[in-house]
Amino acid sequence: MTRAVRHDSMRARNLEVVLGEVARAGPLTRAALAELTGLTKSTVSKLVGDLIEAGILTESGPVRDGERGRPGVEVRLSGERLASLGLEVNVDYLAACLLDLAGTVRLRRRLDRDNRGADPAEVLACLRSLAEELLGAANRLGLSVAGASLAVSGTVEDGLLSNAPNLGWRDVRAAELLALPLPVELDNEANLAALGELWFGAGAERDFLYVSGEIGIGAGLVVDGSLFRGPHGFAGELGHVVVSPTGPPCRCGGHGCLESYAGQEALLRAAKRAGDLPGLLAALAGGEEFATSACAEAGRALGVALTSAVNLLDLDRIVLGGIFAKLYPWLCTAVEDTLRARLGGLRGSSPVLTASELGGDAAILGAARQVVERVLATPGDYLSLTRG
Predict the structure, then answer these.
(1) Could you give the residue ranges of the DSSP H alpha helices within the chain?
(2) Which DSSP category does 334 fall into?
């Protein structure tokens, strides 16, 4: 019995090693995998065969290694059998995304609706309808869905949405209320958006602060390719950094928080465009004074909050996402000028400021890819999922 346990554990570990090499550097031949992993060719062949049978890997064609010998056959991640579901509850919309194991988005859906103060069960029933639509599409495409990850705009600890001030929710077991027939993991929207930027964003940077600008403002810190959550999972609540102690009240109970100056609603009110983000963008493009001055003021407030983050974390790169990515051309100068003025005495240069190219999809992409990463990390747990 002891030998059997050790053998199963070793096989699971070897599956992880082989699949990890393909995920990082593939496509690769079996011979290349044996060389990279230190496993025997026969062991690699058996492991690859199991992964192909499960639909996790697929053969991509013969290649020649060097001048002599028979061509080897490369294997790569397969997007034909396994997929994941990314889901999001934000203040003013719901979203869902079906992502296959190879990282291709097969389908995405978004429903604009005001979720503030709404019954969590009602909101999650609407999201369930979006998810079921994508699960039905996955079934028609021949895809088995390994699991789902749900992004929420609030603080999450041990599977509990403990506080979402902008939704008016406290202590909500959102994944359980969603009641999908597959495993669902709950996580903070800004954290998942930061992971979306890490995995899908341009530049392949491994150290950065991602700032998610929506009605609320959150942030996710990526250090050496990993998300920093803090001991309780609450790291990144940038929207509640105090910009001015005597400022307006915030939904969190404080005063002068960044959200009160640079959150979507605050910015639209200052620009005389309440509830009309497309109208604000059109006004900015036309050089309207109310719009440009509102963005500059929001940029200065964002710069003040980010100065504290830079001083505390020694950041080299900041990525602005969500609506901040759309507003970047009108925000960036004020943010950069504020950072430069406030950091000049402490460090030689300000961090690099960039706009995310993922827009509003960062969180659902990060959520869906989080499930894929779990499959890649523990493939043994999923070998039977596609075998009927």
Answers:
(1) 2-25, 30-37, 41-53, 120-140, 174-178, 189-200, 259-262, 264-270, 277-285, 289-313, 323-343, 362-377
(2) H
Give the CATH number of domain 2-77; options: 1.10.3720.10, 1.10.357.10, 1.10.10.10, 1.10.260.40. Answer: 1.10.10.10
Q: Is 90 helix (H, G, I), strand (E, B) or coil?
A: coil
- The two beta strands, 144-152 and 169-172, are unpaired
Nearest to 51 by CA among 12, 83, 25, 98: 12
Q: What is the CATH number of domain 83-195+363-382?
A: 3.30.420.40
Q: Is 178:127 a contact under the CB 8 Å cutoff?
A: yes
Nearest to 363 by CA among 235, 202, 196, 200: 196
* Whole-number pLDDT of residue 126: 97
Mean pLDDT by groups of 10 residues along the chain of 388 residues:
57 92 90 92 93 92 61 90 96 95 96 94 97 97 96 90 91 95 94 95 83 90 89 77 89 87 91 89 93 95 94 92 94 95 79 91 96 94 78
| Closest listed residue to residue 149, CA positions, set 103, 112, 117, 192 | 192
Amino acid type, 92: D
**Strand arrangement, sheet containing 226-228:** 226-228, 217-223, 208-213, 317-322, 352-355
Residue 93: C-alpha distances to residues 109, 123, 156, 345 (Å):
11, 10, 19, 42
Token code pair at residue 257: 């928080």
Q: Which of 243, 212, 227 is nearest to 308 (CA)?
A: 243
